[in-house]
Design a protein that fits this description.
By secondary structure, this protein is α/β, with parallel strands linked by helices. It is built from eleven helices and six strands. It has one domain: Cobalamin biosynthesis CobH/CbiC, precorrin-8X methylmutase (Rossmann fold), CATH 3.40.50. A six-stranded mixed beta sheet has the order 1-6-5-4-2-3, sandwiched between helices.
Amino acid sequence: MIEHVLPGDIEKRSFEIIAEELASAGITLDPEQDPVIRRAIHTSADFDYARTLVFSHDAVRIARELIAGGADIVTDTNMALTGINKKRIAGFGGSVRCYMADEDVAGEAKERGITRASVSMEHAARDIIRSGRRTIFAIGNAPTALITLRNMHDEGIFTPDFIIGVPVGFVNVVEAKELIIETDIPHIVNRGRKGGSNVAAAIVNAMIYSIQR
């Protein structure tokens, strides 16, 4: 039977269904991680996120404090940029930026024979070092973005304040995520092949919406 739900109640009902299915599966979520996991499930309709999302120590608290303190967000796709609630980020004093479509990024990537995602992370790092801005990286598509962030960290060039690592795919995806999990950089990473720009944006939004003002 088709369930009649008013347009304004669809999201609320969706979260009720998620709660019911988690309960029926005997899954109890960590209270701090709960909003993030539920929103990842909500945007993907995939309950695997209840067991595959990996949180570093105090990850949600750290990310919330960064956002509330006006941290910027850097994404690896314009899709993730579009999905993040930029108005709420601006309300905290931050901004959201994606370097992938910048002409100089595309030109440099072609000249060096590497991905635009790698070059965009390098450009973002240079801008952050110059500005001194606190920044969260939300990566939902390109494993090479995570690999570049790890390399810069290992070389002492740049270390992000926080990484959301949920790229989707098959080539170097699993390995790139593990490279972040191994570090002491605060992070939320989804183990395995699943993820996506929509999931990266959902994780950011979950933390935005859970900040008490």
